[in-house]
Amino acid sequence: MERFVLILFPALISTSGASKSVYAQVGGRVVLKPPAINTYKYVYWRFAKEDGLQLAWRNHLGGTGINKDEPWTNKLTLPDESLVITNLQPENFGTYFCEITSGSQTLPIHSIELIKLNVSVSPAEPLLPGESLSLSCTADYRKKPEIYWLNPRGERIKNNQGTVTVRVTSQDDGMWICVVAEEKQVKMPVKVVGLSPAPLVPHYTSTSSPITVPCSIPPLITWEQIKAKGIHEVHWQFFPETSSGLISQDAQRLFSLSLAGPLSWKRDQPRGLSPARDPKTGNLDLTRKLARVEDRGDYMCTMKFKNGRTLNRTVHVEVLQIISSPGPHLLSGQQLNLTCSVGQPLPSDLHLQWFRPKQSAQPDLKSARLTIPEVSTDDGGQWECGLLQGETRLTSAAITLTIEPKLSVWMLVISCSAAAIVSLLLLILGLIIHRRRRRKMRHLRPQLCRCKKPKPKGFYRT
């Protein structure tokens, strides 16, 4: 008869609950959160082992205890059940255990793996477009988490275990983000030397408005950093718009920046424009109090570096103008033609709108040409033509019309008669004055006589 021996092994039941991974960097701050609980009596936080070094505790009455020994001095706080660690150092990374008791019941111990992230950018100084950028994001953990990078436009970049190497453009300037295990995000700023983005649409102004041609260096980049990249030349050029609406290829150099000594602008063909006073602040704008029709065209701001790299920004300027025919001074009853234009057809998303004087009875119009068969004195005043994109006014031009009342036939006859009467009265008055003067001269004439024995000198006064 065979005997069976049943050996019973005691079950090894672990008291550990769910484990979680948290990622942080040296010098950073992290909040370790236990599982959500409704009520508790005691909360204990330990390091390295379930029964390891006790870091902090808290009870339901608000009592707390914090480990102040090295390497935890001035690093730990326990505002609630969560453990907050600041100024993380390499020795603070590892496994943390949270034990929670609720009355006589002890909940499963919750473990959190605090993993060190190594994030770096090379080079650290600002880059010129076309230069190489290297980004690295790795985790010190046996199980490699998924890591990828997002560029400033939010696009995911192909990488090799968290390492990225790219040739930068001006669009790479900004915040790059390392995403770890779809949870942790680490932001890394990257600076790319460039000029302010050119407007997506033409820069619109009018003959009634100031003109500003924008160009600037990003505010986070200093002039000293620009110099360190080997700046060689900075200048403005203008390509005027021809009568056919095309841009001329004959460039006019407007200003050149003198880099020797204090920064100052050298005027070449300024066209009445003025550059920003202190280019060291990064502001390279051109301005004038009022725009002119001949300002239409392309303005190019250029920075050249000693390594051969060049930065350009082109701003296309359109000037809105009102033309009045026969002119701004009219008589009541004359025909008036007003034309509002930038010199070429407008894009489909832009339109014009006329704004008449308050006393004028003319209807509101949204066309480039406005015709009034017979103007009245109520039509005098300021007329505006606005260039709008939807409800947004991009710019507006203005003209002031002076309209004199029209004279009737009777008013003309009366005016001519009055002028003739005044002229006749002035003539009569002049004749009277002339005759009186002649009489007075006769009365004052001296009496002369001839002597019997005249002396050689002739006549003598008696």
UniProtKB/TrEMBL annotation:
Residues 108-189, 333-402 form the Ig-like domain. The keyword Signal applies. Residues 1-18 form the signal peptide. The keyword Signal applies. Keywords: Membrane, Signal, Transmembrane, Transmembrane helix. InterPro entries: Ig-like_dom, Ig-like_dom_sf, Ig-like_fold, Ig_sub, Ig_sub2. SUPFAM superfamilies: Immunoglobulin. The chain crosses the membrane at residues 409-433. This is T-cell surface glycoprotein.
